[in-house]
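re: ur question from earlier - yeah i can do the single chain one, its not a big deal. heres the input i used so u can compare w yours
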Amino acid sequence: MIVQGNLQYIDGTSGAAPITAAVFTYVNVQRMRNGKGPLGYITPQLYTSGGDVGQDITYGFTQQTTGGDFNILCAKAFPAVSGWDAASGHGSVHLDKLLKIFA
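and the output i got, formated as tokens:
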């Protein structure tokens, strides 16, 4: 991400949340251009899309830290598996697929 003009590597929720917000804002803009209303609550639609919104992530895991000390890694918390998982959700989202389904 670019933060105050500088490239910074950000992961986890701190990286995913603003990117997700930007993507769905863009989808809403396209919906408005198509004469539709805003998305609203999209969770049911995402889950019933059959995972057709992106690339499934099937390898890797999240890393858990100890007691708020982000420098000490411990257990593998959640593995990435085929289909929805706690590590990557539906996987890496493809904007063109989101637009096709929602816009």
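The mean pLDDT is 82. not sure if urs matches, ping me
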